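Appendix B. Raw example, untouched.
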Amino acid sequence: MPTTGHLGPLLPVMTTLKAHGAEIFCTSTPDYRLKLEPVGVEPLPFPAGLAEMADTPASGLPEILRLLALATERAYPWSLELIDEVKPDVVIVDSLVPWGRLAAAERGVPAVTSSTTFVVTADLDPTFRAKVGLLKEVLGGLPHLARWARTRARIKRRFGVDPGDPVTMLAGRADKTFAYVSRELQPGGDDIGDDVTFVGAAVERVQPDHAFLDEIPDGPLIYISLGTRLNERPDFLRTCLKAFADHPGPVLLSIGKRTDPAELGELPANAIVRDWVPQLPVLARTTLFITHGGMNSTCESLVHGVPMVFYPQTADQPRNAERVEILGAGVVLHGRSPDVAAIRSAAKRALRPEVAARAAELGEGLLTGGGTEAAAGVVLDLARETVPV
């Protein structure tokens, strides 16, 4: 999947596989070619329009399902041709790439799923609040679900393969799966079978020694970022600036390239606004992270022992946020437009010592899963089972 949140964790896995002597081809867009070629991975272009579909913001799981079904209908024949051309020994598929999983199965090539978030199961929403939220998502997305069902039926007629029910499509589990979370962090992790390897974080803990930090004043740092995609919420950022205007330390906002800094209005004296920051060293210096709750950002924060206030937007983010709150390492903001009082209250709760301690404990668990070596090992073990010596 050609997005930062999906390809980013896989890059170090590919680098590790290269170090073990593997030859790697990776479907890509021109933007990501610049990241693949330096590590010796050969980029393969997506068919026209597919990458644009992947970059389409989705309002919730029903719309994600609709888009995945439409992309599968377009990309499945291409995937078959690609496997026939490259003749891989193992196919690595992103969990949200049904067309790759289906094509590998059709051609009899073993496949490994790279899951950048929780492994989707039928019991992923265990609490009453989560079940109510899922019900609202489903009811609000009925038109998307109807179109998904029609596309699924069309795929079965045209190609003789079934992309699966919603859980199957969103989980994307192939012969083997590695997930960049710990078994403790995964909801219901103890009930998931041995076909899934929880490798933990794809990143290591770093030190706050980046040159970027030289321009950040002393004091407890609050870092605010809503990720790289659905981050156009200047209203929320303005409210955060008001909430933390009297904070006795710097407040750093990473706003991306879609938000105009002028939309933030007059900045408090402690505010620093950038369109990009080096997130890992910033988190190493951070006291509190205000985040959308993407899994990469969540794990990076935990690895550095930073408690979080979550403002989830879509997809897996509400589930990530709820899980971390249940485990005691963060606080979730509810509602579309939380006010100053709500943000201050959430920050106060997240800054309790026991929350930071719990974040550090979960971070240690993410660092002991084996990381990229463990993920590469899943791929190599499967190759050894199927490739003649």
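End of appendix B.
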